[in-house]
């Protein structure tokens, strides 16, 4: 995981430094600074993700590629992509109702 901090957005709530003090420090006015280069090893993922999610102004962001949680159907060259659309006629197949 890799994170970045946008200091121009930070409002100084300090929750990031509370949750992940090894990655965030606060200046004299309470605004956050990123400690290190933003690379987060797997063992520190949870507290850093908590800091990211608890930031009220969303000044912390995860950068890099995320893997999709739901795989997309693989299409062949001769297939019509519209066949895979969710519509009223196939709503039971996709598991949604009105």
Automatic annotation (TrEMBL):
<feature type="region of interest" description="Disordered">
    <location>
        <begin position="65"/>
        <end position="98"/>
    </location>
</feature>
<keyword id="KW-0249">Electron transport</keyword>
<dbReference type="GO" id="GO:0051538">
    <property type="term" value="F:3 iron, 4 sulfur cluster binding"/>
</dbReference>
<keyword id="KW-0479">Metal-binding</keyword>
<dbReference type="InterPro" id="IPR051269">
    <property type="entry name" value="Fe-S_cluster_ET"/>
</dbReference>
<dbReference type="GO" id="GO:0046872">
    <property type="term" value="F:metal ion binding"/>
</dbReference>
<keyword id="KW-0003">3Fe-4S</keyword>
<keyword id="KW-0813">Transport</keyword>
<keyword id="KW-0408">Iron</keyword>
<keyword id="KW-0411">Iron-sulfur</keyword>
<protein>
    <submittedName>
        <fullName>Ferredoxin</fullName>
    </submittedName>
</protein>
<dbReference type="Pfam" id="PF13459">
    <property type="entry name" value="Fer4_15"/>
</dbReference>
